[in-house]
What we know:
Protein name: DUF7847 domain-containing protein
Strand content: under 5%
Number of domains: 1
Distance between the termini: 40 Å
Keywords: Membrane, Transmembrane, Transmembrane helix
Helix content: over 70%
Largest sheet: none
Pfam family, one: DUF7847
Amino acid sequence: MVSRHTDRIPEEFIFHNMGWATLHSLLGSWFVSILVGVTGLVCLLPGMLILFAVMDAPTQSWMLGSWLGNSGIGLFVLILLLPSAFLGVSLLFVGQEIAVKDRNLIQAIVGSWRQCRGHRVRLLLLSQFRLSSKQVY
Length: 137
């Protein structure tokens, strides 16, 4: 429970629903991770199978053997993973909904979806910038 108290957290809120919040946060992180992963696989596997099923052998060897073909495959993979990224960004605030607003898992998923409405592209760009800034070259 976040409130106007800025100098310290009131005693009644230190352990307020800590067990349930921890359980819901753990289940929420598992649920979001599995859902985003399954969505990525459901979009990626059929797309790649169809792509290589319609190509003849010389085109496949060119796609796999040249940097331009590899770039095309990489772009195709990124396009196929857009639904997974959309879902991941839409459920970005599930943990915060549980911790701050004291909600259960379903309410947190709905709240995160509503909170991200209209800001998904900016959140995606912000999350990618944050991830790329942590990479060590």
